Amino acid sequence: MEAKHIQSSQATILDINNGVQAKVLLRSSDTNGKIAVFEDVVDAGAPGSPRHIHHKQDETFFFLEGEFEVEIDGKRYQAKPGDTVFVPRGTPHAWKFSGTEIDCIRYIFSPALNIEDMFQDLHDLRSREISNQEQLEVIAQRYPDQEMLGPPIS
Fold it and tell me: Exposed/middle/buried for 52, CB within 10 Å: 0-12, 13-18, 19+?
């Protein structure tokens, strides 16, 4: 594996949820599948992530700007800039933005597996303006290592 320098201007931006844009900072293909790194810019009032599980991946969050509420295995935490949250594989979790301005969160999947493919599929679905539950379930079936459990944190 060789060293990589990915310029911010080269990063792909994916619209993965209403008010959430994911910037792909490091792809699975850049690290031989070891990690993938994303940075979300989150609009005020965005719903955040649905409750979900990554069955074969650990996920680590770095809160860069703003305030977030994080739910891990049913327990809630308040995350502020500079905080880090580690979610071991197989653990139900979700997050939501709880501030009043556009904010930012960075996260790493380890191993990367095919997470960016799922994010690309979600982006493609949103770009076609077909984000109904049936289509989301079709995408979920393509990625059995990622399990959606329920709605975002309310």
Answer: middle
Full pLDDT tens readout for the chain, 154 residues? 788 888 888 899 998 877 788 999 999 999 999 999 999 988 877 878 889 999 999 999 999 999 899 999 999 999 999 999 999 999 999 998 887 777 899 999 999 998 999 899 888 887 776 556 667 777 878 888 988 888 888 8
Integer Cα distance of 149 and 90 in angstroms: 12
Give CATH for domain 8-144.
2.60.120.10
pTM for this predicted structure: 0.89
| Residue (of 121, 119, 145, 111) closest to 32 by Cα position | 111
Under 8 Å CB-to-CB from 28, ≥6 apart: which residues? 35, 36, 112, 113, 114, 115, 116
